[in-house]
Amino acid sequence: MSNFHGLDSITLNPGDDLPPLAPGTIRLYNMRFCPYAERSVLYLAKKNIPVEVVNVNLVNKPKWLLEKNPLGKVPTLEHDGKVVYESAVVNEYLDEIFPESSVLPKDPYERAHQKILVERLSSIPTALYGVVRSTPETRDAAVEAIKKALANADSLLTDDFYGGKSTGFADLSIWPFLERLGLFALRPELNLGEVPSKENKKLIAYIERMKQQPEVKAAMRPIDQHAAF
Amino acid sequence: MSNFHGLDSITLNPGDDLPPLAPGTIRLYNMRFCPYAERSVLYLAKKNIPVEVVNVNLVNKPKWLLEKNPLGKVPTLEHDGKVVYESAVVNEYLDEIFPESSVLPKDPYERAHQKILVERLSSIPTALYGVVRSTPETRDAAVEAIKKALANADSLLTDDFYGGKSTGFADLSIWPFLERLGLFALRPELNLGEVPSKENKKLIAYIERMKQQPEVKAAMRPIDQHAAF
Fold this sequence. Notes:
Chain A is of the alpha/beta class. Helix content of chain A is 46%, strand content 8%.
């Protein structure tokens, strides 16, 4: 049985009531196509924490979302009157309140290195948004940036996963962006060719390996749904 | 006696040898005017950790810096063959290896909130760089952004410090940027008026309070030095 309740529930809009939150229940404010929120969905799946998901409209935000999180962003976590947001903060917090299923390693140096990997892989999200927002004038540079970011990610893979022999903090942080690379195949006008390119051998094998992980199966959505969004 | 050795040592350039690092010594690769590196200088000062500082040229980077940290940035921490970088990662790591002087609170929710505050105050660094890089065309929007960011910082002050009754993780993270606000007074062409403005009463009192903290006294530099840089 899934640890999620309401992962595909309808999106709530301004004017919709905030559903009551039962004591002891952990709630995740989510948007089904937000890669940052997906980082916490993946984390909750991997840790197998029972959670109630409330999907919200991020273009027109319900007032109660802004009352919980003044930045009005997802993921936002709430339980027993406590509200935590920002994907990295939420995931680290989940490890601290549920240490028995900690995804981050206990060793300070190894912990630091998972966070450093997130930083070193952050050229992927930056380049991905760069391509999406590119104009005909800036397209070549944006395409170059995503290819460079993926080659860098390929070079950083020294084991099955960025976390070693199993998925870790960095894997669950970068995956939502790799999942969305398939969107580029639907936009031939970008002239991107294959992303990742055939040369990114380790990264290609990694993506296939990731798709077999239970937490990825629980969180990922078909590329046509992303495209429709 | 200061916990720092070499905080004002000469800047090392490409071609300069990497000074040998003695076993057990903690080294901080630093640039004297980098606000991100200053976050870790403040942290090391507050925790009173003996540290050897190596100042590096970030425009022309010594090759050995890039070998330690492929991103070529500061702060970079090294001890006993372990290298950690990115200011937030370095500071959290320092708390983990020296827990007796932890700046971050032990409680997971309070810890999370210090990190959330850093995020909520991040409009200040963004706006500060926005003003510095503004052109005559974008200047009005950049000035508006810094005023808004400072009003937001003022509204978030609910105690003596963002950390409560004493300085915490968020205070030491935002201070380097507040320290540099004085640079604007030296650029009347920006037409910024006073920053923070007289209405940001809590923030003005906070800045004066921060200047009295031992770690701030250890780390801050006169504004004319920043300006000369």
